[in-house]
Give the backbone structure.
Amino acid sequence: MDTIIAIQIDNCSRSFAATLIRNGKITVDGRTKKPGYTVKVGEQIAGWIDPPQTPVFIPQDIALSILYEDDDLIVVNKTPGMVVHPAPGHSHGTLANALMYHCPDLAGISGSLRPGIVHRLDKDTSGVLVVAKTSLAMHHLSEQFKSRQVNKRYLALVFGAPEADHGRIDFPIGRHPQDRKKMSVNSRTPRAALTYWQVRERYNGACLLEIDLRTGRTHQIRVHCRAIGHPLIGDCVYGRRGDIKHLGQLNPGMKPIVETVNRQMLHAWQLKISHPATEQWLTFNAPLPDDMTRLIDCFRES
């Protein structure tokens, strides 16, 4: 059934058609069916698509670091401190505001108030982020993220260093049992989470990890690094009180420098996706932000 809908509606992917069917927007003889239902001769398919919603936020002329752009998508290097999408307390100055100014046609893609945004990065995490410019591209990319076809690699500065040079973390993650604003590996309702890591550089009291994210749980890298005893430098939510003190014992010169870090040292370094129109695999790399580069240089010199 989803195949028929995708063929009959212009600029409609099978995944978008399946979403319409599951939500009851398209029926067969007035009855809701599954996306994979085989339509029989004489049955009548009917339905509707909600009109695009008008964004509740305004376009803003905010500079974007664009890594790639064509008619189907735009890839940016998000700066640390920028919120991806408007939310209570962050109605302006977000990536969405900037994208709406740069690409006015993003408004209401697929009836959504999130203009082309198919994945997010935390406010204080920098790096590669892909945005769809058409409804077809949005649903194609969304399906890639959902089915874990996308390859995401990060760079993280953490306290201490694992004894091994590489490894995996497969602790399930869910809401913290006491603090609902945090995530935890000790949740009552966890979901599977898998992270691969390898040491890129070792320093006195810290190290640089390259992280291969296989699932996309909220705060996954930050929670997993804390769980193995190596919290991210600058992470005020999942860090530990004794981390900086211990660093000071190992590397006294770095202690006052690390104390000035005001965000988690996490960067979405690389993203590999299948182009929604050509299906060609593309890899995008984002250079490290200045604050993380300076901190790494200080560790190297120390």
User: Anything to note?
Assistant: The first strand starts at residue 26 and ends at 28. The two ends are 63 Å apart (CA to CA).
